[in-house]
Each structure stands twice: as structure tokens, then as C-alpha cells.
Write a structure and sequence with these properties.
The complex is a heterodimer of chains A (about 110) and B (about 475). Chain A has 6 helices and no strands. Chain A is mainly α. Chain A has one domain: Fumarate Reductase Iron-sulfur Protein, Chain B, domain 2, CATH 1.10.1060. In chain A, helix 1 packs across helix 2. Chain A is globular, with a radius of gyration of 13 Å. Chain B is of the alpha+beta class and about 475 residues long. Chain B folds into 4 domains: about 90 residues, Uridine Diphospho-n-acetylenolpyruvylglucosamine Reductase, domain 2, CATH 3.30.43.10; about 120 residues, Uridine Diphospho-n-acetylenolpyruvylglucosamine Reductase, domain 3, CATH 3.30.465; about 110 residues, 2-Layer Sandwich (Alpha-Beta Plaits); about 130 residues, 2-Layer Sandwich (Alpha-Beta Plaits). Chain B is about 35% helix and about 20% strand. Chain B is built from 17 helices and 21 strands. In chain B, a hairpin with a 4-residue loop joins strand 5 and strand 6. In chain B, helix 9 crosses helix 13 and helix 15 runs parallel beside helix 16. Chain B is globular, with a radius of gyration of 23 Å. The mean pLDDT of chain B is about 95. Classes of the chains: A mainly alpha (about 110), B alpha+beta (about 475).
Chain lengths: ~110, ~475
């Protein structure tokens, strides 16, 4: 497992070109960009930066199939599949109660 | 525009369209506020229309409450074209992505704006047809985005840009009723008064929203002969291209990359040859019977100008097997890698890609001047582009937190545009004006003593969009 700073550095390299979306099997099935690799990478950045998460963000992160197709086309060579696995571990290790509270607060 | 306007807009919109078409999650909204240009804005909400009626309702309410509207395809544009500069509403066309009609006899496809260019071509290939506009981002770029940015691409040498491949458009106006119009025709020949279709193409979402497009199609060529040639001297490469271009043959594709960029783009990809030197990639479409003749023609011209390596394929399958397009396809990655070599692998980098065009006869002067300019500013400039139509994309990659380099890059960017003008060219070929080239547009109008064009354009804008709510702050 890599630490939060290393993970942030990894996802922070995203240039936002969107090339990864062309090979992602989930983006066309989701309701918005968060269901594609570009979205997930930038949501991971937001999770790490603001320590905040919403139901919609969770759905984006957990809808990834971890197929790693995006890794093959990323010009910045971000290991997107690994980043998603890492952030899932981070979410799992968070104080679940506080995350739940945040979700509830945000959804009101 | 006050906060209350957006709230009222959303409240009324929620009562007229399904709530699952409206997104207000603050974190997800950030995904619609950014572009590869590095420009970030602030979206207040995203609406996902699913048909023309939805768009009409959105624009009618936006007009009523004076809410800024930013149409988006896939946010892959490079001049800050669709970033929400003012707090406003994103209209994302990702759910309007259908092919509504395909008619091979009429050589047209009627499509919704959210379809990606590659997806369209995968569907057309079964019929032996293609839509020939192919920006390097075609796997992600949408037809709607390509229309609004006036996109071009690798095949621009032969097929031009979007303005040449759209017969008609269904558009929605930002007025009281969200009025729907069909401008242009379904046919290629069309004399329906003033040509509003070509006014909308390249207007970057500032005049109206496109909800349907009638696209022209063309058969996929029977055979395409491609030569990849490497030259020690960039001048030899440019002279070889000029001679081929002046021989009565219109290249299907003509791309080039300087040696440093070739070196970077070749890293991490498997090739059957050693990619050393400046690269010219040139394709000519022909019949199966003529491929040998074209091969000889190309190889003779390339050898005459001292190419140190020439690899030629006789058709598309062979070109793929031989990996002739691999280096070109890796261009964006090469530009990023160049930055990682300079700044380190973990640094957040910004790639700034210029987009000038000069008459092909001036390409040698343009490349030499751009190269000298990079040296003047001490910047590592990657030079490449669509040499076939005179469109070059010099680019630099830099650390956006390094203010002194950023300052140099902006000066460099402006001077590159000046070079284009001095060679009778233009400041933007296919990326559009957006935010980054607004000053450049004024520079160009003044350079050609044509500044009244700007006031005419402003008048046109105010007729289409009297409240100035469509993509405010862009183009003009």
C-alpha cells in the first residue's frame, strides 16, 4: 500500500485529456463523468485534498471494474487501476462513522 | 448575475424535466469545471439533456433568469473553449449520443452532438464509409465539440475541417421560447440565403446549442500507401514534403515531428525499426492497382531529399503491422514525457499546444522561426503537426507553479502567433479561440487591417444571444 501523499502525487499528474474514457467499460453506463477513469482519478484527488466523500463519489469509485484498460492509454502514465484500489483501502480504513455523518449532512 | 437566479432556474427546471437529468453534487461538479488547457472554472450545476425539448426548456429558462450556459461535449478542447468562467450551468451532451439516421445513398449521417467521433466511425466502417475529420483526440472528442471548435485533424490535408463536412444543423436559441431552428440543408448543395451552418461551426457554443447534425460521409479509400521517412536534417524533410505537395498529388495524411519529439514518442512502444531523426509520415490514397506506382513515387522523392530511412506500407493493415502510426499516436504522451524528463516524474505538468497555420509553401520558414523562438526563450519546444495543410502544433510543457517559466511560455505563445501572421497565416487552425487566443484574435484582425470584423461578430453575437448568456467570456 502507498501513502496518501504518494497517491495524491500519482493522481495529480492527470492532464485531463480524457483519452482513458475511450477504453473504459463503465463510463457509458453511468450517469456522469465520474463513472470513467478521468473522473475517478480527479475524485480521488478531491477525497485526499478535502477528506470529504459523497454517495455519488462512492458510487463512482466502486463502479470501477479494475480492468486497467485505462492504464494502457494514459499519456501521463498514471496507474489508475492501482489508484482506485488504494483509495478503496483508504475509504475502508477511514473512521466510517465520520464518513457516514458527512454523507448524511451533505445529502440533507 | 446573482445567486438567486441560479436557484430559481434550478427550481423551475426541476419541475419541467426529470430530476435525474440534473446534477448538483459539489464534488462531481468539479469534473465539469476543468479542461486540458489547465483553465478551471466553477460549475454550479450540470444538466444532461436527452432530447431537443430538454435543451429548449433549459435555454428558455436560462434566458428568463439570465443564467450563463456552457455547452460541453467531452471537455478535451485546448484553448479554454468550454470551461465555465462565470458561475453557471453546464449543459453536458453525453446522453445525446445517438446516430439517428444513416443514409449511404445520400452519404449522410444524422447524429446527436454527444457521439464520440471514433464511435461514429466504428458504425460507419461496416458500410465502407467514414467521417473524415479526425482530431488526435477523436477517441474522446464528440461531434458537437468538433462542430463548435471547427475541428480538423490528420486528414485535414485532403478533407479540410468540420466546416467542409456539415450540411445542416438543428440548433436551439437562447430566447424566451428556446426556439428550435434547422439551418442549412440535408444535401451538400444548398443555397438557403446566408450560410448560418458555417456561422455556428466554430462558434464555440456562443451563438446557439447544437442538438442534431447532418454530417457528410465519404467512402473509405480502397488503398492507402504510407511512407514513414526519417531525416537527419529537418530542412531536407520540409523540402521533400514541398516537392511531393507540388507534384499534383494531394496527400491523404502528411504529418511531421522533430527529432527530439520522435525520441520521446518512441519510448515505451515496440517498433521494428530504430526511430532516429526527424519524421515525415505521408499517406496517399489510391486504387489497389496503383499502389506500387505510388510507393515508387514516394520513395524516390524521399530518397532524393536524403531520407536516411524509408519504410512504406501498401495498405492500412500493413501500416498497422509495421507500426508506422505508433510514433504519431504517441505525440501527446511524448510531450508529457518531455516535461517529466525536465521536472521529474511526479510533477504536475501543463502542456501548452500552439495551433498556428501558414500556407504550406511557408512551412519551412515557420518551422525555422518557431525553433529559433524556443531557443530565444530557453524553452524545450516540441515541434510537429499536420504539415499537409500548413498547421503546426509547437508545444511546451512546464510546471504551472513555476511563475517565471509560465511568464516565458505566455510570451512565447504570443510570439508564435505573430510568426503565423507574418507568413500570411492565422493564429488558430483547429483548436479555436476560447480564452487563450482572445488576444491573438484581436492581433490577427489588426494585423490584416480588418478590425471591423470584430464589431460585426459582436453584432452577430447579440442577435443570436441578446442576453449574453451562452459561453460568456469566450471568443470575443
Amino acid at each position: 500500500m502507498i501513502n496518501d501523499i504518494m497517491l495524491f502525487d500519482e493522481v495529480n499528474r492527470c492532464m485531463y485529456c480524457g483519452f482513458c474514457e475511450s477504453v473504459c467499460p463503465t463510463i457509458s453506463l453511468g450517469p456522469h463523468r465520474g463513472y470513467g477513469p478521468r473522473g475517478r482519478v480527479n475524485l480521488i484527488k478531491e477525497i485526499l485534498k478535502n477528506n470529504t466523500i459523497t454517495e455519488e463519489v462512492l458510487s463512482s469509485i466502486y463502479s470501477c471494474l479494475l480492468c486497467n484498460a485505462c492504464n494502457l492509454v494514459c499519456p501521463a502514465k498514471i496507474d489508475i487501476g492501482r489508484a482506485v484500489r488504494e483509495v478503496r483501502a483508504i475509504i475502508n480504513n477511514y473512521n466510517k462513522q465520520s464518513i457516514k455523518k458527512k454523507i448524511i449532512i451533505r445529502e440533507r | 448575475m446573482n445567486e438567486g437566479n441560479i436557484k430559481n432556474f434550478i427550481n423551475e427546471l426541476e419541475s419541467s424535466i426529470n430530476s435525474n437529468k440534473i446534477l448538483m453534487d459539489d464534488i462531481i461538479l468539479k469534473l465539469y469545471s476543468r479542461e486540458p488547457s489547465g483553465i478551471e472554472g466553477k460549475a454550479k450545476t450540470v444538466v444532461f439533456p436527452e432530447n431537443n425539448d430538454d435543451v429548449s426548456k433549459i435555454l428558455s429558462l436560462a434566458y428568463k433568469y439570465e443564467v450563463p450556459i456552457y455547452a460541453q461535449g467531452s471537455s478535451s478542447s485546448l484553448s479554454g473553449n468550454a470551461a465555465p468562467l462565470k458561475e453557471g450551468v453546464i449543459v453536458s451532451f453525453e446522453r445525446m449520443n445517438k446516430i439517428k439516421e444513416l443514409n449511404i445513398t445520400d452519404s449522410i449521417a444524422i447524429v446527436e452532438p454527444g457521439i464520440r467521433i471514433d464511435e461514429l466511425n466504428i458504425n460507419l466502417e461496416k458500410s465502407g464509409y467514414m467521417f473524415p475529420i479526425d482530431p488526435a483526440s477523436q477517441s474522446v472528442a464528440t461531434i458537437g465539440g468538433a462542430i463548435n471548435n471547427g475541428a480538423g485533424g490528420l486528414k485535414g490535408a485532403k478533407y479540410g475541417t468540420m466546416k467542409d463536412w456539415v450540411n445542416g444543423l438543428q440548433i436551439v436559441l437562447a430566447d424566451e421560447n428556446g426556439t428550435t431552428l434547422f439551418v442549412g440543408c440535408k444535401t451538400v448543395k444548398c443555397r438557403k440565403g446566408y450560410d448560418l451552418t458555417r456561422l455556428i461551426i466554430g462558434s464555440e457554443g456562443t451563438l446557439a446549442l447544437v442538438t442534431e447534425a447532418v454530417l457528410r460521409l465519404t467512402p473509405i479509400p480502397e488503398s492507402i500507401v504510407t511512407s514513414l521517412a526519417l531525416f537527419n536534417d529537418l530542412s531536407d524533410l520540409l523540402n521533400a514534403f514541398i516537392e511531393i505537395k507540388s507534384s499534383g498529388i494531394q496527400p491523404y495524411i502528411a504529418e511531421f515531428m522533430d527529432s527530439k519529439t520522435v525520441e520521446m514518442a518512441s519510448k515505451g512502444i515496440e517498433l521494428n525499426f530504430t526511430p532516429e531523426g526527424n519524421m515525415l509520415l505521408i499517406s496517399i490514397d489510391t486504387t489497389k492497382e496503383s499502389t506500387d506506382k505510388i510507393k515508387k513515387f514516394l520513395e524516390n522523392k524521399l530518397s532524393k531529399h536524403n531520407a536516411n530511412k524509408i519504410i512504406t506500407s501498401l495498405n492500412q493493415e500493413e501500416a498497422e503491422e509495421m507500426g508506422l502510426f505508433k510514433i504519431r499516436r504517441n505525440l501527446f504522451a511524448a510531450q508529457v514525457s518531455m516535461g517529466q524528463v525536465i521536472y521529474g516524474a511526479n510533477k504536475k505538468l501543463q502542456v501548452f499546444i500552439e495551433d498556428i497555420v501558414v500556407p504550406p509553401s511557408k512551412i519551412i520558414e515557420a518551422v525555422n522561426k518557431v525553433r529559433d523562438l524556443g531557443i530565444k526563450y530557453g524553452l524545450q519546444v516540441s515541434i510537429g503537426g499536420h504539415i499537409g495543410d500548413g498547421n503546426i502544433h509547437p508545444s511546451v510543457v512546464y510546471d504551472p507553479t513555476d511563475e517565471s517559466t509560465k511568464d516565458k511560455v505566455i510570451k512565447w505563445y504570443n510570439e508564435v502567433m505573430r510568426i503565423a501572421l507574418e507568413l500570411n497565416g492565422s493564429i488558430s487552425a483547429e483548436h479555436g479561440i476560447g480564452i487563450l487566443k482572445k488576444e491573438g484574435l484581436v492581433m490577427e484582425m489588426n494585423y490584416y487591417n480588418s478590425s471591423k470584423e470584430l464589431s460585426i461578430m459582436r453584432s452577430i453575437k447579440s442577435i443570436f444571444d441578446p442576453k449574453g448568456i451562452l459561453n460568456p467570456g469566450k471568443v470575443l
